[in-house]
Amino acid sequence: MALSGIEIFKQLPRTNCKECGFPTCLAFAMSLAQGKSELAKCPHVSADAKARLSEASEPPIRTVVIGPTARPGKAGGETVLFRHEKTFANPTLLAIKVVDSMTDAEIDARLARMDELQYDRVGLALRADLVAVQQTDGDAARFAALAAKASAAGWGLVLMSSCATSLAAALAACAGQRPLIHAAEAANFDALAALAKEHQCPLVLRGQSLDQLIELSTKAAGLGLKDLVLDSAATTLGAALRDQVAIRRAALSGKVKPLGYPTLTLASDLTDDPTQEVVAAAAMVAKYAGIVVLSELDGASLFPLLLERLNIFTDPQRPMATTEGIYEIGGPGEDSPVLITSNFSLSYFIVSGEIETSRVPAYLLVKDTEGLSVLTAWAAGKFVPDEIAAFVKKSGIAAKVKHRKLIIPGYAAQISGELEDELPDWQIIIGPREAAYIPAFLKAWKA
User: Fold this and answer.
1) Considering only CA atoms, which of 344, 350, 407 is closest in space to residue 380?
2) Of the CATH numbers 1.10.340.30, 3.40.50.11600, 3.30.565.10, 3.40.190.10, which one belongs to the domain with range 325-443?
3) What is the pTM assigned to this prediction?
4) Alpha carbon 73 to its chain's center
5) CA gyration radius for the chain?
6) What percent of the chain has pLDDT over 70?
7) Which of 60, 216, 360, 383 measures 20 to 30 Å from 13, CA to CA?
8) 182: β partners
């Protein structure tokens, strides 16, 4: 259960040293309680207090890290049943299956295709996260070579085999890459648990019922294994949904600690129809899989899943924002126009898209307004003359252009006079009120 700010405050040194960046220990405690800071920022907290606070503040669903340090994937860490209560923490990891029965050419093409299927959306690079390497023919050397190839390509791995010997060979071939081992069942639990402990890798527990998952989880915890993932072995979408909801509710509301781990679903086990597999995967992203394994790799299927994941795991209480700075569009030069907007992502992408459409090279200044749109930011005092002037001066745009003309959004026309007072060397030009008119406006531009 999450601690309140006062409960955390009682465990802190209460020196108000300010080394954590907060004026008082109470302010720091309140920030910790809201999940906005980390305990590590306090240099004076005792080891005992750190241990108590760390244990008490752990989310009811453990965060499990999978894959190499350079590209780690995180599953779990959830604290709420519904997104609007707070936010979901770690987006569902999408894994694409590669089977050892495929030819080398098919495997190489699939790995290359995974690199190609990346999409830029609202300033984020959307892509699949993991490669699920599945053994089907019992050849341990082939399985290990395939794991090594996928690992060398930089992907986090899910090693899918029931054979401890084959898994041991694959783990040796990708040592230090922290793959996820799938899956320990009642029959092979001891051997796979020993491998997970030896290689310090996360382990999937696969049970035919929630009671069996609880039994396996309790046994694994007794061996000191903490990074676990649960697979309920469902074979229909209805059963998978039932299990996912039951596990999430038990961990969050029922405080059933043995079920407090992220889950994995094999979407291909739920249907033989590729289209229905995508539908099943979409349902699992929404409720509540930590990892979804797909058997097919197709942009028309992957892209909708990536967008769904982006929508679900975007914090509803925090606007999506673009990084503040100067954005060069179309290779601008010293005579190119200079426009300014807020860092609300939708504003940025609409404005930058219209600038690209105009084919007029331009500089776009993006002012940090904490993700607020132009009018909202103006009303909140974040897109106002003194703030804009300070940003323009420090941005370095004056060194890039020989003119001194700044185009502001038409909806911010009321700040033009004060902005000219703040920037006496600059001429403030009022741009279009609607982004759709930017191309015509820029084509008529004269520096």
Assistant:
1) 344
2) 3.40.50.11600
3) 0.76
4) 9
5) 26
6) 97
7) 60
8) 160
